[in-house]
Amino acid sequence: MPQLLLELFSEEIPARMQAGAARDLERMAREHLAAAGFLPEALKTFAGPRRLTLVVEGLPIAQADRKEELKGPRVGAPPQALEGFLRKAGLTQDQLVERDGVWMAFIDKKGRPTAEIVAEMVEAIVRAFPWPKSMTWGTSKLRWVRPLKRILCVLDREVVPFAIEGIESGDVTEGHRFMRVGRGWGGQPFKARDFDEYSKGLIDHFVVLDVEERKARILEGCKTLCFARNLELVEDQGLLEEVAGLAEWPTPVLGDMDPAFLDLPGEVIRTSMRTHQKYFAVRDPAREGLAPHFITIANVQAADGGKVIAEGNAKVLSARLSDARFFWDEDNKAGNFDSWLEKLNGVTFHAKLGTMAERVERIAALAREIAPLVGADPDKAEQAARLAKADLASLMVGEFPELQGLMGGYYARAAGLDAEIADAIRDHYKPQGPADAVPTAPLSVAVALADKLDTLVGFFAIDEKPTGSKDPYALRRAALGVIRILLEGEHRLPLNAAARKANHINAENPAGQSGKMSDQVAPEVVAFFADRLKVTLKDQGKRHDLVDAVFALGDDDLVRIVARVEALDGFLTTDDGKNLLAGYKRAGNILKAEEKKGWKGEGERRLLDDASAPEVQLHDALRLVEPALAAALAAEDFTAAMRELASLRGPVDAFLDGVFVNSEVAAERDNRLKTLAAVRDAMGRVADFSLIGG
Amino acid sequence: MSSKPQAEKPKSFQSLILTLHDYWSAQGCVILQPHDIEVGAGTLHPATVLRALGPKPWNAAYVQPSRRPGDGRYGENPNRLQHYYQYQVILKPNPPNMQDLYLGSLEAIGLDLRTHDIRFVEDDWENPTVGAWGLGWEVWCDGMEVSQYTYFQQVGGLDVSPVAGELTYGLERLAMYVFGVDNVYDLPFNDPDAPLGHLTYGDVFLENERQHSEANFHGYDVAVLKRQFEDMEQQVPLMLARDYQGKSLVLPAYDMVLKASHLFNLMNARSAIAVAERASYIGRIRDLCKLCASAWVEQQEEAA
Q1: Which of B1, B137, B162 sits opposite A186 (nearest CB)?
Q2: Model confidence pLDDT, tens digit, residues A458-468
């Protein structure tokens, strides 16, 4: 069956857009082919620095003939309606057939040649391609990510002829931008009539088509270089993806770095290598830390084995690291923290939330409040919080924003500050993603929580809550960070009070025009936490109805909430749990019906003299369970609480099976209802069982 | 593309410039001289900002001294200058083989394209003070940025059609790389074997860097700068309102915008502009620039 090969050859496509472009091309091609009635055997796309490629296997040479059925106006409809229908169908009235009082047209549609459909498809794809950013060039009206130069389009080894804004399709592409067989430089054109010729032609012309192969080539090359020198590659997946989009013939080259730079923090060296130069760092397994080398991924295999490339890159790296050393030395000068804090007065955090200096004041005040709740010293917490954002004004963080916090930690240590405070400054942004660890030292926890709570309360107060997929201030991440810190460290923080305090501090420190300082903010933030926690627990496979049942109690201590959900989850997998839940529902239904009729359950429950055995049994059981349950809950021993509830199961079952609640004797009826209500109340102290599915 | 037999490799800063002049002249560019007003970048020369607008073809190359008052280091930093040179090429409409033409220019100044690692790395260029942006790359040679390559999409807030391609070479940095020099002041300014004697970049410019660094950071009177800025600002609408033979005086008006822009840079270097004011100053310059751009396009279209 015929094969379709399409290549869109352009000037250099930004590395970060290539993977998305391959996916978009695949999706659009599938949609177009499906709309034409084709079901190809295989469809694959590739993206690289200068080309997007599509190969489709198993297309027919033409569409199948089709019969189309068109429903027209009713017989006897106004003549205009009929005329319109005939025009649309391209028929005359004698060709119509009457069916059930309606004019029908049966049209035989000849299948069109696949080549025609492909030509239309390519034009439609090119014109509608969803590049994140596109441009025009020269006098052309076409938009593409960078100028589009060639279109190779062959079906069943024949060129599919068409032209888009003056670019004619053909069977020619070209190889590597610089490398070629023989002397000189520059892309050599070659012909390809199918995918085999195309892939072979690319390799012969120094182009690796498949990004996975480029990545493998890079990793393999790096490891070979490292092995020869007894070094270890510092792997970096994000960097690998990027450099694989920057070279058609990726060729790792190892260069030297002046070992004198090794006294800079390893993070600084790695960040400088990665962000500015896209180099991989290497480790020396014999010593702790980095080795004085780097690996750059060149696009050419140079005649001199990459000597000139290595030297040139080494020089650039030296200049970069000299800058970094300058920043490091300047930043480490005495007295910097004071001048940095002064500078934060001039840094806007958010137009409605004031300057960074004002934010620091808020975080410091809040950290002081939170400290005793997480076992930290309030004075130290306030001090650490006050210094936590200072490094934003440092030269190094100005250059590498991703080193915020980390640099503050280094500088604080160098300035002779308490190690605990330095660690709190370093770790207060944590966790910065699902893979990042949470801070555990009490002081770090206090500052990290204060930082995140201030963010959440501030943005909620000015009505900048996340909506749908939009979360520009990363509030979900902040909330999740708080949740993880509290749960993983088992910190008992009453969130309601904390959010109210944060809101209060925010309102007292009105940085500009903070929106509503109403009482609404704290509950909204707490509800937001509840929401995020539900998502987290659901992700861990906890039943969402159990989460709801526990949340309904209005607790705001996340550690306790999760312990409850876990105990409840365990309980409901037991026989006792399942049966008690069923009993609860029966009791609940009876009570609901009676309460509707006006039963209020006033007065004490007591055991009537002529009570039946099940009544006595449940009454006694409740008398035992109630104080024990209260004690277990007070001790937050939820497993014990569940055990207490479990002991109600037998008596509850016996009561519901053996006692007629709606006795004609008013006192009996009232007392039996009160007994059931007591069961409901006891269980309700553990969770709202009415929200749990059967 | 294939390499032609090489003319002699440049040996000095000035012969590097002459080589680029020869190269782009041979491609059909008019070789212009620098604009005689202080600017922060070669792009701001009216030969780029204004000529990129309107329908008429335009191919030009020139050197433009560029002033970045805040970058001065009193001649003590081997890489940073408050006054340096950019080589600027503007091709409108950009020819289809513009990348190859550019690479040819690197070859002309002595870079072997099979030995060095040349890359086109995404970099979208934007200059908010002139309301301009475009898509393109920074061009890397062995990891060093040697040029900025941009396809203009908007200038002065107006869409450009046809599209102009812009190349900006940082001349000192490029020269340091080509000649293997680590300190800009050690660059050979003219041929080291010149019969009348040899001067380095430092011989020519070190004192200039020292004095201007001091002036930029401490010398200028902020109140005067501010007043001058406002004076320039007021001149622009006056020039644009003045009719001379059926046209407004857009070229002089644009010069006033450039002067205002430089005065803003000086105030900035003196840290005389608060963060909140900064955006407003930039907005004021951009608005003036937009007025000039619109007036210019009108005149171009009338003439076309």
Answers
A1: B1
A2: 999 888 889 88
